[in-house]
Fold these 2 entries.
Entry 1:
Amino acid sequence: MAMSLKVKFILVSVLLIIFSVSAAGFLGYRESKWKLKKLARDLLVAKTEQAYALCERHYKNDLEPSEELKKEIASIQIAQDGYIAVLDNKDGPSKGVLVVHPTDVGVSLYNDRFPHIMKILDEIDQHHKAHGYANFTYYQQGTVAKGRQGERKIGYFKYFAPWDWVILATGYEKDVFSSRDQLRSTLIQLAGLVIVVGVVIVYLLFGRMFQPLQQLTESTKEVARGNWDISINYNSHDEIGALAQSFDQMVRSLRKNARMWHEFQVARDMQAQMLPDKQPRVSGLTISARSIPAREVGGDFYDFLEFDDDKLGLVVGDVSGHGVSAAMVMTAAMSAVRFAAEEKATTDDVLSLVNLRLSKDIQNHMFVALFYGIIETKTRKLYYTNAGQTMPFLWRKGEVKFLPQAERGDRFPLGIERSTVYEQLSIDLEPDDILVFYTDGIVDAMNGSCEAYGFDRLSASIRKYAASPPDVMLSSLVAEMQRYSNTSEQQDDVTVVIVKVG
């Protein structure tokens, strides 16, 4: 029996829909699978770096680890059943003993029942116990271990040399990569939905040609606002073309939203964890500091280093880029400064050491603009070195000026050139002097005419509010900038630190 033209059209159209949706779904899933896996690995790295940073901060203040530190590390959560474990790597009976673990603190894992632990510790030993050595590890949960036996696990470890600790972030692959399985299920459901809807549209094409297509186009626009991952490419100027454009819009929106959401969450947590939770109390100084993040997390940061001999170290920095990568570089930079400040006495030597480390560790396209200063409260003297950061202002007796800049040394940001030579400058401070440190987010803020706020307006604002306490002055400086930009969406991080000399 011969098929009618309508039946043939429906059959061919259905086959084309199935082929197109299947191919687009397969390609979209394959690409997204790799991206989700990378995000999951980045999550393990971020959690390990978070614990590592806690150890470095604690080590600066206390040479021995405390129970409070161990509890803080143990509280870090990873996916459903993931956790942070810390193992002792000292040679001898304590090698492989769990220092931090949800249930088995004090148990030794350096034996044949836990080959993956032996492999990790042996690998670190083979690299001469290099401080900061890190790598991924993949293994299967053994029958002697607690938890979900037989399931595959993924981990990321990093070695903390001062205490001979191995920090290990681990989780089940099924949990860490759960978004991949959800994506596959969603793609199958969405592909089935698209095929069914396509068949209905083709069947009703001759009777009601435009209305069903327009309704489907509106439906696909709604789908584009959800958490899906699919791609359909079809170029046409009719209603089918509009449908394809809607799906393409969906793909762009979903990929952007998924990436930004994951990066935002990880980066925001890391940034909040690393910034000081309170201002230091130093005799002769009144300090106020604040970092206001933009909608997409950037790399602004500040820190205070309290020394034992009436000295206060002050750090203000800005990492290029946004998201997880910027937050990770921020963490590395803050840790490097804290470490270098313990090793070197002068600000130029500290930044030279930090520059060597960052030039080796961070990606080529990234860098860190950073100001590091040391205030001696007894002598009222500020020693400082600037590596590409905006130059701080000094208010003194009604006048606002930039701090003097280096004439002999370089001002390149950190992480660009290993051979950069920095210069330490110094300035005598007087009672009632006000130092204003800030990042470029405040001077680069634009108004509706695309005119930057600029240094002159900031200088005038400093002069205007100099009589106020530092915390009130800081709020006023930020408020003036926000009134000028006249927008609710901040384009870049804004960090301001104010120090008033008593």
Entry 2:
Amino acid sequence: MAQYRASESKREQFRRYLEKSGVLDTLTSGKWTPPPPFSLVTLTIMHSVKQSFNLFLLISVLPLFLAVLVALYEEPEKPNNALDFIKLHLGAAGPEPADTEALRTELADLQQKCSELMEENKELRSRLMQYEPSPDGEAAE
């Protein structure tokens, strides 16, 4: 009986943890959307047939979600942000590294420079063709 009460206390602590971290509010308010690959399929089914959507959710998403909740429940050190833990384990994109924006900017700059160099190369080739004969022996005009 004491083991049952300890278990119940642990469940109650976990429920309060989910409540404080905003997981319960997010799920019950309808703000939560399933992560890819479920999003497109979920939206398609939801718009077509409400019953099918409920069945799909019950069969495919719910067991996965429950498995993630069990993993969170069994975590010895509970993460500060339970929603991020759930999103990460459901396959949603995790937090981006701090240097992502710098890398995106660098990529855009390098793509622009590459484009400029390709244009310069094209121009130089056309100028070179004026002074060198073409491969078949005729002089270019």
